[in-house]
Amino acid sequence: MMATKFKVLLVAATLVFACQLAAKEPLIFMNPEQEARYNELTLELRCLVCQNQNLADSDAPLAQDLRKEIYDMMQAGRSNEEIKTFMVDRYGDFVLYKPPVQGNTLALWLAPAVLLLLGGVVVVLIIRKRTRMFAEHKKESQ
Amino acid sequence: MIGRLLPIFLFVLLGILLAVGLKIADHKTEIPSPLIGKMLPEFSLPVLGQEDVIITQDDLIGEPFLLNVWASWCVTCRVEHPFIEQLAASGKLKVIGLNYRDEETDALAWLQHFGNPYAMNIADLPGRTAIDLGVYAAPESFLVDPAGRIVFKQIGAVTPEVIENEILPRVREMGSEQP
């Protein structure tokens, strides 16, 4: 009984693994650092076809082409910045999952800080009001 | 008073935000091309069906033309095909085909079946030049001026409206600028 369960689990685990590998071509890297760089880059760049997937996860033909392109550029010794510039020159800032800080993205970058600040102000105001109410209530009951 | 109006104010603000979001979502899948205003990228590709005839960007530059990216597997290409044919037949603009990520036999059969309006068809079977053009789906069409600059890009089907409102006015402008 235990053995059967284990077998089922093993098959399931293999299947999950197979799915994750589906969108990857077998590539040979010069060193582990290069492989890590490749994985990082394909995670950060958007697949233009699916648009809500990154290049690492997508199985679209264009994503395969672009992964190959990135791999070739890395083999040619190009830096991450150069590879990103290559992509932005062709597909625009949209291709970057992490948009650069510039004029038209300022709101995007600053909004979380502004909202956090606003929330903080509201919390402080509520605490002050409650403390005052509590103090008055205490005075009245005495 | 202000306390009572605040929720209404916030509600209106949220409404505006969502309305703008919906409006943007209409065109969300269309990515503005950074190539507008730039020169046609360099390439060196064979003519479809004639592997030994190599075409480069310099062979095309000199007169305005529409570079239409198509493939036999592309369904929307069939939709726009009659309009591409009309445009080419009108003689108002030269249309060059860029056969994208296709099989040569399929592409040639497609042209035989649906008709061939193209002054020339360039075969980008590996899709490498299409990457330089920032193509991410077919069909896409690039309007190129006589200097070889990309002045307009249509993502998706070229319709009669696109031809009348976007493409032909720009071609007429090019004509008036020439000495």
Topology:
The complex is a heterodimer of chains A (142) and B (179).
Chain A: H1 2-21, H2 32-44, H3 61-75, H4 80-91, H5 106-141
Chain B: H1 2-26, E1 44-47, E2 50-56, H2 57-60, E3 65-70, H3 75-90, E4 94-100, H4 104-114, E5 120-124, H5 128-132, E6 140-144, E7 150-155, H6 160-177
Parallel strand pairs in B: 3-4, 4-5
Antiparallel strand pairs in B: 1-2, 3-6, 6-7
Explain how this protein is built.
- The complex is a heterodimer of chains A (142) and B (179).
- With 142 residues, chain A is mainly alpha-helical.
- Chain A has two domains: 99 residues, Cytochrome C biogenesis protein (Helicase, Ruva Protein, domain 3, Orthogonal Bundle), CATH 1.10.8; 42 residues.
- Chain A has five helices and no strands.
- In chain A, helix 2 packs antiparallel against helix 3.
- About 4% of the residues of chain A have low confidence.
- Chain B is α/β, with parallel strands linked by helices and 179 residues long.
- Chain B folds into two domains: 30 residues; 147 residues, 3-Layer(aba) Sandwich (Glutaredoxin), CATH 3.40.30.10.
- Helices cover 44% and strands 22% of the residues of chain B.
- Chain B is built from six helices and seven strands, in the order αββαβαβαβαββα.
- In chain B, the strands form two sheets. Chain B has a five-stranded mixed β-sheet with strand order 5-4-3-6-7. Chain B has a two-stranded antiparallel ribbon with strand order 1-2.
- The mean pLDDT of chain B is 92.
CATH fold-type name of the largest domain in chain A: Helicase, Ruva Protein, domain 3
Q: Distance N terminus to C terminus of chain B?
A: 69 Å
Low-confidence stretches of chain A: 17-22
The general outline of chain A is: elongated
Give the full name of the CATH homologous superfamily of the largest domain in chain A.
Cytochrome C biogenesis protein
Main sheet summary of chain A: none
- What's the CATH first level of the largest domain in chain B? Alpha Beta
The largest inter-chain interface, given as chain pair and residues per side, is: A-B, 14 and 17 residues
Assembly annotation: heterodimer
